[in-house]
């Protein structure tokens, strides 16, 4: 019973993988049980999941393995203004950190993938011609802030190899507004997979793939056309009425060398500016014509050329060239991109730089103080040693002079003391002194004798 309670509590602790803001990410870009990488940038108030750059990708994977009969995951995202391109996907597959060209996710997988492709208009008419452009300027009902999602729910057992260019028809095509946050709910239940967008049920499919012991992830990528994706919330909901298996935690990590943030397209672009849409298509047609010339005659190729071009197509191409040349001439788009987009990516590095500078300054202050104290001690020690050495030198010098003088003269080696004695003894006054001393001695003796007899006579 205790073991069952422990396992159940472990399962329901899975809501700890929810992401809410503000965040306090650690240095390796991990947030709770999530790992972000590629071009994703974790900020204090949201996760910048994908920047508006061409041919880049990013990922967000959780290192928690979920195995429940009924559960759901909720994502809140904001698709900021780009030029209607790129896409993102949510993965429930058996391989943690899988990546590829399918909106940043793998083309071959075992599990479920939910793909959102961002389009400018409905896939049946993606290009605005010159006439529609003119109507857009006068028609107030046209919402320039609206894009379209092409939604695919792919299920595979690992035998399929999907490509964006050969995907089946979308399960749903729905419009969205750039000014609103997109609330995406994916629910797994015995009824199958249910996909909700902004509280509206869009797709419901039978669950055919095995998602037991799956991993949860989200990927995003940009191609020639780009979008800017922001992730603001992730929340799990577990239905306690259904029995749950063990909610296991794994410490599996992505080998970041294998997951590159740089997307390598399968085709090369002569004109990378997204404004060149129809122009790029015309270049492809032109190359196909030149390839036919190598095998057929020019007359036959010209005779078989489709004559479906219109004056509006010509004006559309002229408009594209005009927009592209204006961007090149004024750099206005580049300036807006730097001021509106890149500043978000510089904020985090600026904060880290300020922290590093502050810590370096503190370390320099501590080191400077330590060096100053050490310098004072060394100066005092140096002064003391110098004075001691000077005094020792003076004493040694004096002693050296004395010893040198004694060494030069010796101990009366030249007989100077004897000469002094002889010189004194030869002097006449020395003999006089001797005579005076003898007479004084005799007088003292006589005095004492006379005094003795005088005393003796008075007594008797």
Automatic annotation (TrEMBL):
Q: Which Pfam families match?
A: Lectin_leg-like (PF03388)
> Could you list the residue ranges that cross the membrane?
432-453
How does the record say this protein sits in the membrane?
Single-pass type I membrane protein
List GO BP terms, alphabetically: endoplasmic reticulum to Golgi vesicle-mediated transport
What the entry lists under InterPro entries is as follows: ConA-like_dom_sf, Intracellular_Lectin-GPT, Lectin_leg
Gene3D superfamilies documented for this protein: 2.60.120.200
Spell out the SUPFAM superfamilies in the cross-references. Concanavalin A-like lectins/glucanases
Cellular component GO terms, alphabetically?
COPII-coated ER to Golgi transport vesicle; endoplasmic reticulum membrane; endoplasmic reticulum-Golgi intermediate compartment; Golgi membrane
Q: Which PROSITE patterns match?
A: L_LECTIN_LIKE
> Where on the tree of life does the source sit, at the highest rank?
Eukaryota
Keywords for this entry? Membrane, Signal, Transmembrane, Transmembrane helix
Asked whether the UniProt record includes Lyase among its keywords, one would answer: no
What is the annotated localization of this protein?
Membrane
Boundaries of every L-type lectin-like domain copy: 11-239
**What are the protein's GO molecular function terms?**
D-mannose binding
Signal peptide segment: 1-17
Which PANTHER family does this one have?
A: LECTIN, MANNOSE BINDING 1 LIKE (PTHR12223:SF28), VESICULAR MANNOSE-BINDING LECTIN (PTHR12223)
Protein name as it appears in the record: Legume-like lectin family protein
Taxonomically, what lineage is the organism?
Answer: Eukaryota, Metamonada, Parabasalia, Tritrichomonadida, Tritrichomonadidae
């Amino acid at each position: 019973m205790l073991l069952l309670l422990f396992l159940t509590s472990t399962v329901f602790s899975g809501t700890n993988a929810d992401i809410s803001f503000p965040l306090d990410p650690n240095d390796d870009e991990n947030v709770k049980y999530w790992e972000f990488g590629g071009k994703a940038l974790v900020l204090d108030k949201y996760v910048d999941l994908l920047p508006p750059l061409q041919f880049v990708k990013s990922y967000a994977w959780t290192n928690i393995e979920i195995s429940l009969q009924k559960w759901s995951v909720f994502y809140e995202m904001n698709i900021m203004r780009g030029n209607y391109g790129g896409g993102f996907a949510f993965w429930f597959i058996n391989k943690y950190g899988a990546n590829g060209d399918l909106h940043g996710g793998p083309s071959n997988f075992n599990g479920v993938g939910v793909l959102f492709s961002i389009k400018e208009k409905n896939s049946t008419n993606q290009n605005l011609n010159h006439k529609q452009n003119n109507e857009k300027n006068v028609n107030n009902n046209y919402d320039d802030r609206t894009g379209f999602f092409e939604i695919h729910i792919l299920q595979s057992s690992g035998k399929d190899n999907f490509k964006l260019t050969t995907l089946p028809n979308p399960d749903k095509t729905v419009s969205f507004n750039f000014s609103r946050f997109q609330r995406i709910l994916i629910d797994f239940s015995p009824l199958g997979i249910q996909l909700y967008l902004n509280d509206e049920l869009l797709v419901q499919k039978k669950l055919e793939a095995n998602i037991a012991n799956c991993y949860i992830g989200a990927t995003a990528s940009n191609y020639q056309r780009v979008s800017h994706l922001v992730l603001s919330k992730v929340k799990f909901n577990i239905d306690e009425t259904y029995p749950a298996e063990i909610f296991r935690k794994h410490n599996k990590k992505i080998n970041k060398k294998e997951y590159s943030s740089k997307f390598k397209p399968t085709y090369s672009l002569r004109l990378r500016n997204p404004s060149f849409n129809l122009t790029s298509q015309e270049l492809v047609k032109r190359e196909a014509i030149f390839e036919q010339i190598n095998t057929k005659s020019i007359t036959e190729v010209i005779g078989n050329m489709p004559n479906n071009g219109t004056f509006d197509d010509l004006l559309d191409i002229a408009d594209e060239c005009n927009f592209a040349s204006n961007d090149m001439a004024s750099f206005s788009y580049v300036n807006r991109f730097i001021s509106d987009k890149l500043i978000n990516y510089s904020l985090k590095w600026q904060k880290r730089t300020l922290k590093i500078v502050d810590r370096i300054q503190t370390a320099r202050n501590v080191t400077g103080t330590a060096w100053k104290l050490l310098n004072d001690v060394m100066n005092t020690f140096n002064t003391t040693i110098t004075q001691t050495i000077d005094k020792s030198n003076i004493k040694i010098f004096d002693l050296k002079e004395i010893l040198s003088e004694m060494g030069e003269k010796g101990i009366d080696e030249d007989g100077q003391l004897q000469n002094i004695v002889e010189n004194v003894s030869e002097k006449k006054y020395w003999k006089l002194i001797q005579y005076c001393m003898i007479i004084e001695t005799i007088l003292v003796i006589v005095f004492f004798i006379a005094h003795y007899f005088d005393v003796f006579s008075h007594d008797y």
